[in-house]
Amino acid sequence: MQTAVHQRRDLLVSLSHDIHATPELAFEEHQAHKLLVEALRAEGLDVDQHAFGLPTAFRATAGASGPTIAIFCEYDALPGMGHACGHNIIAAAGLGAALAAASMAEQFGGRVVVLGSPAEESGGGKVFMAESGALDDVDVAMMIHPADIDLRSMTAIAIKNLVCEYRGKPAHAAAHPWDGRNALDAAVLGYLNVAALRQHLRPDERVHGIFRAGGDKPNIVPEFAATEWAIRAPKLEQVDALALRVRAALDAGAKATDCEISCSWIEPAYADLRSSPTLETLFAENAAALGRSLGIAGIDGEVIGSTDMGNVSHIVPTIHPLLAVAPSGTGIHTDGFTKHAASPSGDQAVIDGATAMAMTIADLWLQPELVAQCKREFVQRS
pTM for this one? Predict the structure, then answer.
């Protein structure tokens, strides 16, 4: 498998850089989608290029029978920051693992499915794909993610996103302000209420928000304002409980200013990530053979976030290991991380990630009892 990946090194690194140079937002990843589909077809794989009803999703398979392993590619970017989460590395590493595995599928007696999943940063592409049957014939799933540390797994917690719109009454802010009802004041008071609530959250809970709209001119009492909130906790049921407290804080801002408030959830929600112990160990052993020592999350370090790969992990045994591409302390979703995602260390993560995943797939094909063990663990943890 290592040779099969290294034979494609130039292709993988070039593709990673091309995706990095052309960042595309959720469900708009047309160039990245095109590059990946063309690379798969060039090696003879049959590709459904608009899979599961999503224009920028794809599905390709190789192998006729045996354990079926899914590899996920992500390729959407962040607004203003480009690939500050390194999805160009995820896409290229996933492609490399898939091509290497596909070249050995008949010999090793297994099946590989590579799934191009759009809109991880916002939109939940994997959730819609799973609902349309993407995982129906899959035994285990995997992907890698770049970070500032080598870890067996990311600490991915559940998240729901909430949009709140405030409606007041416009008026001239100098001539007759008493006739107005200030929607921006309602939103600001709601924001401050949530800020006060944060003092009383558990250490593993998160609430953060932005203003989407807040008026047009200072001499017009704002008739409309809007905020967007992310509410996170270890499990979705904890998110639901926390959301009640957040809504009370936001509603209070509207009540205090005599404005109306309407809130709606942005679907889908992301579940927590349940990492498969057996898959983790296999991947870590293969990464160690490449010179990477993967630590244990919460003991050797931690990267906390949310991902729709969490939803996948509630359907099939899953891993989501982290590979260092940036110096320690360089957080994802920062401009600094964007630069490292197309650096020599980022390129090495593409090759190491592809190789370790391909080696792990070979282990599962050659030892199908490991797949059965992953499934037993999955049922027990569920």
Answer: 0.93
